[in-house]
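To the wet lab folks,

You asked to see what we're planning to order before we commit. Fair enough. Below is the target structure as tokens, and below that is the sequence we designed to fit it. If anything looks off to you, flag it before the synthesis order goes out.
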């Protein structure tokens, strides 16, 4: 048995990512359900309300799209995790904390390197 990469950490990351994926999925389902519902209650609406409703739906649509994007990020993160190169900082090769990976699945830098790269601008 060879343990090149600490197996428990991979497990922790996977659990965190899958938990995040579930959260996003239910968030997405709820948003889509709301949009569907909004479409149903449209009939017989006052014309004065329509402008606001259209605006709200646009926001909901944008929200649904951004949730989908985050779901894609989690999926890509899981693929990278399976490939064995996920969760380490691109700059210092240090381990990125699991909580940070779960919150920002597409993150490639640790907090220290990230703030260092930002302070350059
Ligand atoms: Zn780093």
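Sequence we intend to order:
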């Amino acid at each position: 048995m060879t343990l090149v990469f600490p197996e428990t950490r991979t497990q922790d990351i996977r659990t965190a990512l899958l938990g995040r994926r579930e959260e996003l999925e239910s968030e997405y389902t709820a948003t889509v359900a709301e949009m569907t519902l909004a479409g149903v209650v449209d009939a017989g609406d006052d014309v004065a309300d329509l402008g606001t409703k259209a605006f709200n739906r646009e926001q909901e649509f944008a929200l649904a799209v951004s949730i989908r994007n985050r779901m894609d990020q989690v999926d890509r993160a899981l693929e990278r995790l399976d490939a064995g190169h996920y969760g380490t900082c691109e700059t210092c090769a240090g381990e990125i904390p699991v909580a940070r990976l779960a919150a920002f699945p597409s993150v490639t830098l640790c907090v220290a390197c990230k703030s260092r790269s930002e302070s350059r601008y």
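Structural context that might help your review: The CA atoms of residues 2 and 8 lie 13 Å apart. The pocket of zinc ion is lined by residues 89, 91-92, 94, 109-110, 112-113 (CB under 6 Å).

Thanks,
Computational group
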